[in-house]
Write a structure and sequence with these properties.
Blueprint: H1 3-71, H2 80-91, E1 99-104, H3 116-127, E2 134-140, E3 143-153, H4 160-163, H5 171-177, E4 190-199, H6 201-252, H7 268-300
Antiparallel strand pairs: 1-4, 2-3, 3-4
């Protein structure tokens, strides 16, 4: 087996082992980074929903309620949950994997009815008044989903104007949603949860793409190193060694007319080439001396 083949086999084995170790570690890192990235984006959507709710209460509701008072109509746009949900639905057009919901035990709008899994989250907020955020996972239609949840706590007394008793609520609102849901709420009570959910397939896909890109980059780097190392070894080691081998072979055959090896540089191979040249000259002198002695012996005889 040639030296080049041995070196290439060592390089290939080293690369495969390195690729395996680095691949396992990098996949775990990319999976964590992808999950963190998705969580950060979900948190951003949650903050946008909170901002919309606040804007609706402070800016939109006063204006629309003035018109409602005069024309006797109820405007759903004055409801923070409605405004946040509508905005989130528009946002889903660019981020279809993310969903937003305001899940409530006893909602005014039936679409906000909490599922059994969402009810468990609401109960956690009720059990721990100091709990302000939950991050976890749940099964949604058989799909594992990551969620971020905030409690919906009644801290604004104005909310009770629509949610205390049916009689206190605007008649126009009851005409739309009925008088059975969304009532009996109390101040400082947790009635539901705001949730942003995203399937785990999204971070998994992000991790897969990042991991493949990393492996391809690593393979390209290895191939470049492979060629650079092979060219370097061939030029700096194998070529000088081949010259020394040819010189030794010529000397072994008695060819004393071959040219000396040109010595360049001051590395170990250069020193070995210079030593080989000195040995060649010594061998030539010994051979020439022996030939002269043989000639003298023949002349005397």
């Amino acid at each position: 087996m040639k030296l080049t083949t041995k070196i290439n086999l060592i390089l290939a084995a080293t690369f495969l082992v390195t690729l395996l170790l680095v691949g396992i570690n990098s996949y775990l890192l990319t999976e964590d980074n992808a999950l963190q990235q998705v969580t950060d984006q979900a948190e951003l959507i949650m903050q946008e929903a909170l901002a919309v709710r606040s804007y609706t209460v402070n800016e939109i509701r006063p204006l629309l309620n003035q018109n409602g008072d005069s024309d006797g109509n109820f405007h759903p746009q004055t409801v923070p949950a409605y405004a946040a949900s509508q905005t989130a639905n528009l946002l889903r057009q660019s981020r279809p994997n993310y969903s937003y919901k305001e899940a409530v035990f006893n909602p005014t709008n039936p679409r906000d009815k909490a599922t059994p899994a969402e009810e468990q989250i609401i109960r956690q907020f009720i059990a721990d008044p100091d709990l302000t955020k939950l991050v976890g996972s749940q099964e949604v239609d058989g799909v594992k989903t990551l969620y971020i949840a905030y409690p919906i706590r009644i801290i604004n007394p104005k909310c009770l104007a629509c949610h205390s008793t049916p009689e206190a609520a605007p008649s126009a609102m009851r005409a739309i949603y009925g008088d059975t849901g969304g009532f009996g709420w109390k101040l400082n009570e947790v009635v539901g949860t705001q949730m942003v959910a995203v399937p785990y397939t999204l971070p998994a896909e992000l991790a897969r793409k990042t991991f493949i890109s990393f492996l391809v980059s690593l393979a390209v780097i290895f191939l470049l190193l492979f060629f650079v190392i092979n060219i370097t070894i061939s030029k700096l080691v194998l070529t000088p060694v081949s010259r020394l081998t040819r010189m030794a072979d010529e000397l072994s055959k008695g060819n004393l007319k071959s040219a000396e090896i040109k010595v360049t540089g001051k590395d170990e191979l250069a020193e070995m080439s210079a030593a080989f040249n000195r040995m060649r000259r010594s061998v030539i002198k010994i051979v020439q001396l022996m030939r002269k002695m043989q000639a003298k012996i023949k002349a005397k005889s």
